[in-house]
Design brief:
The structure holds two protein chains of two kinds. Chain A is mainly alpha-helical. Helices cover 54% and strands 10% of the residues of chain A. In chain A, helix 1 crosses helix 3, helix 1 packs across helix 5 and helix 2 crosses helix 3. Chain B has three domains: 65 residues, no CATH class; 131 residues, no CATH class; 47 residues, no CATH class. A five-stranded mixed sheet of chain B has the order 1-5-4-3-2, with no helix packed on it. Chain B is flat. Classes of the chains: A mainly alpha, B alpha+beta.
Chain lengths: 101, 268
């Protein structure tokens, strides 16, 4: 199936996810996009099955002494979509640094 | 469940979440609240400088997105949305006619004076349209009488609205030339009314044929079945399914003795 065409901001968010940024504020900080763009875009990407989300386990969150976060992960379709988007927006690959854990 | 940690959220954040949560649909509210509590907690903990209005906008836009998505999912393809859209278009088309007439009263007088002509033309067009409808589908006779009446009422409502809309649009279109060339305007309106109505009614019958016979929602996910080269050996055509699982519609690519028209197959 042909990967869906993404807007520049959606492609940027997907790229951030593929580089290891995995929750809302993390993506906002990496991309510089406003929260009003990032959160609805994440929901749209999840609806289109390019992204899946899961809740961090309570045990892990309690160990880090913070509330559990909602982590987003890129799916196989998402990876195909980001490859197509990188061809469309060649600068995308240079806009974001890889996340250092 | 919200973790039992001391909430470092500011009073403004808590107020914002409490005020915005009502925008979120109930089934998704707890999840949404939990996500935003975690996100805002993270911001407060990390002391990330973010302008407050940008975050307010984010919380509200996220909640609004969930609301609009739920409404859109619930309404897309429903007969109510179809009737609502046609009614809205009719209202929009009526506004220029009222402005041109000068007042609502003047418009009503003109409309009532034209009513017999409109009714005669519309009946004729509806008759021709129904008699020449290409699309036919075998009505599921085993379906309850109530459902068949509902389907016919929906089709009738659509046809009436399309006829009224066509008349209003053609009236708006010919209004500027009416004071100078009244006869030409009348002929032009009648001809364009016939053309527009026939196109609209044809769409209406096609649209009805491609709806679920149970809930009248538009059928989705078209899938090609069979091979064109095997036309005389097996079914070759398209299948559409009801997104609520009431059944599917088989539309043959070409008519065969065993599959002459579209067949609605209900889910038993």
């Amino acid at each position: 199936m042909k990967p869906p065409r993404l807007s520049h901001s959606a492609a940027l968010i997907l790229k951030a996810l593929s580089l290891g940024y995995c929750f809302g504020f993390d993506i906002m900080e990496a991309t510089g996009l406003p929260s009003g763009t990032v959160y609805p875009a994440l929901r749209r990407l999840e609806r289109d099955e390019l992204v899946v989300s899961r809740w961090e386990s309570e045990a892990d969150a309690a160990a880090a002494q913070r509330p559990a976060r909602r982590y987003h992960e890129i799916t196989h379709s998402g990876k195909a979509a980001i490859l197509a988007a990188t061809e469309r927006y060649p600068l995308l690959a240079r806009l974001l640094p890889e996340k250092h854990v | 469940m919200i973790p039992a940690l001391p909430s470092p959220l500011t009073r403004a954040d808590r107020l914002l979440l409490a005020a915005t949560r009502w925008l979120v649909p109930i089934p998704e509210r707890e999840d949404w609240l939990r996500s935003w509590q975690a996100e805002l907690w993270h911001r407060s903990y990390q002391r990330i400088p973010r302008p407050a209005p940008a975050l307010v906008l984010g919380v509200i836009q996220d909640a609004l997105w969930l609301r609009t998505e739920t409404v859109s999912r619930a309404l897309t393809g429903t007969p109510s949305l179809c009737i609502l859209l046609l009614l809205s278009l009719l209202l929009l088309a009526t506004i220029p006619a009222i402005i041109a007439a000068g007042s609502l009263h003047a418009f009503t007088v003109i409309a009532l004076a034209n009513l017999p002509r409109i009714a005669a033309e519309a009946s004729l067009i509806a008759f021709v349209s129904l008699a020449t409808a290409v699309t036919s589908f075998e009505e599921n006779l085993s379906s309850p009488h109530r459902l068949r009446i509902k389907a016919r009422l929906f089709l009738t409502a659509k046809m009436v609205l399309i006829l009224l809309l066509s008349w209003m649009l053609t009236s708006d279109f010919t209004w500027p030339i009416r004071p100078f060339l009244p006869f030409t305007a009348l002929v032009l309106q009648s001809l364009s009314f016939v053309l527009l109505s026939l196109l609209g009614l044809r769409w209406s019958s096609l649209d009805t044929a491609l709806r679920c016979q149970h809930c009248l929602c538009s059928l989705a996910s078209p899938a090609r079945v069979g091979r064109p080269s095997w036309n005389f050996l097996e079914f070759n055509g398209t299948e559409l399914v009801c997104k609520h699982g009431h059944g599917h519609l088989s539309i043959p690519e070409i008519e065969t003795s065993w599959h002459q028209s579209s067949v609605w197959v209900p889910t038993s």
